[in-house]
């Protein structure tokens, strides 16, 4: 990882769910604390598993443009039926749905972002909606320069409009933007648009019972074990 | 200004040019320092005067959706002809056009915003584009939770879609959003959408040669001499 590579990069765009925050652990903990008679681990995994199919309904045109908050609620309502949870009020359901606004960061996230903010413009690039990402940043202390979201571009990742949108917003060529993510498919799509890519290892994204493969792909510009390690590699 | 009024407010949305940053002084200083043989004061005022007519060309449909960076450049090109400035390279013109990304804050802005950020979600609501507002925040140290812009809503203020857009983004009713601005027309339009309003006195917005009327309008929820004074009134 040479100085040349990093010196040309101006903007770091971060995937959020799993890369910067621990959705699995945060949701499992909150659901367990609610004593609903369900396993927080299974509940978290099922909720997340509903996410891609729900987005696909929008991408296929079956649903109009929909915020992730609303997709999360559609999935939640189905899950409450599946898990036979019948004793929640509407206010309790709304509060539970916004657990996605209260996800905790990985232990290295805040310190790593603070360091990278000193040398780069750091922004989110998430399918999460703007309000969700803003509330999460206040909850978790994430020091974004700017919150970019599928909501700005009215397309979800991996649509090229999202990756190229970052380059257009900041008026820099795609190769001066780097996507930072814990998901190879997201990085592949960004690289196809000309962005640089950094893979972050998050072996516990789905919990300790199903460890994730975090092996390196040489197509990425950087590969790091944490956001602090990425800041080290970027020399900031 | 009672506790009741401020306790119900969740989001403070700030107008930027003139309210948080001193466009007049910043541009006049930079133009004077370029030794172009023109009066920085006149140049700054003429540039800003071209802004509303340029936006109106978009609002009337004569131009498609256009970022403020591009409107600023159209006005600048006309001004360079009017002021008979012929010796700037394309790179110098691009750099000068981005002076709007390098505007300095009023002396109270950063401290006032830091205090309000502890109690509210603070965001921009400006016709400036996202990249401009993000670069300005890094330059000036403005600690936004979120950058909202006409670019997100594809409408300029005073279109209701911008004010109501803030309430929709944060999933709160309009009366839980307050627009903070140094311009009564902006506040009037926000109030018509159900937002609360705070007027900030910026008598020097157009320089000391043409002091601005900053008298109070009782329709506003708050009236303050600075962002620090507003933080005082909001009890944060």
From TrEMBL, chains A, B:
Keywords: Hydrolase. Transmembrane segments: none annotated. It is an enzyme of class 3 (hydrolase). The keyword Cytoplasm does not apply. SUPFAM superfamilies: HAD-like. InterPro entries: 2-HAD, HAD-like_sf, HAD-SF_hydro_IA, HAD_sf, PGP-like_dom2, S-2-haloacid_dehalogenase. It comes from the Bacteria. It catalyses: an (S)-2-haloacid + H2O = a (2R)-2-hydroxycarboxylate + a halide anion + H(+). One of its GO terms (molecular function) is (S)-2-haloacid dehalogenase activity. The keyword Hydrolase applies. Its EC number is 3.8.1.2. Catalyzes the hydrolytic dehalogenation of small (S)-2-haloalkanoic acids to yield the corresponding (R)-2-hydroxyalkanoic acids. Belongs to the HAD-like hydrolase superfamily. S-2-haloalkanoic acid dehalogenase family. This is (S)-2-haloacid dehalogenase. It comes from Undibacterium terreum.
